[in-house]
Amino acid sequence: MFDCVMPTRNARNGMLFTRHGSLQIKNRRHATDEQPIEDDCQCYTCTRFSRAYLRHLFMARELLAYRLNTLHNLYYYLNLMAEMRSAIDRGDFLPWRRNFYAARH
Q1: What is the pLDDT of residue 2?
Q2: Which residues, in sequence order, are bridge partners of residue 21?
Q3: CA–CA distance, 105 with 44 (Å, rounded to integer)
Q4: CA angle, 51 then 32 then 40, to 5°
């Protein structure tokens, strides 16, 4: 995964990663959803754009959609790895891992 196209390829195909699992931005239910991709995410995309707008861009095949989705997915994985490293440093990786998987849908 560390030398992988997964976050960018998935972003270009409308799959966004969240702590609760993946989100398909092209799904109709996001057409009027004013929430960010993930509520507590501090990435450029989440702090500025709604799911509805991202879906609109994606459905219109606007290049900005691919860039914004990619920014979110890369931020997600960078943050995930930082959390993992911190849990390892604290010596509580196993509880962190259990919580990580328990939060996913």
Answers
A1: 63
A2: 18
A3: 25
A4: 35
CA torsion, points 64, 66, 97, 20, in degrees to nearest 10? Answer: 70
Cα separation, 15 vs 4, in Å, equals 16
Which pLDDT score, from 0 to 100, does residue 105 have?
72
> What pLDDT, in 10s, does the model give residues 91-103?
999 999 999 999 9
**What's the predicted TM-score (pTM) here?**
0.91
Q: Which residue has the tokens 């997964």?
A: 6
Residues 104 and 62: their CA atoms lie apart, in Å, by: 30
What parts of the chain have a pLDDT lower than 70?
1-3
Query: Which stretches within the chain are classed as H helix?
Result: 6-12, 44-48, 51-59, 63-90, 93-102
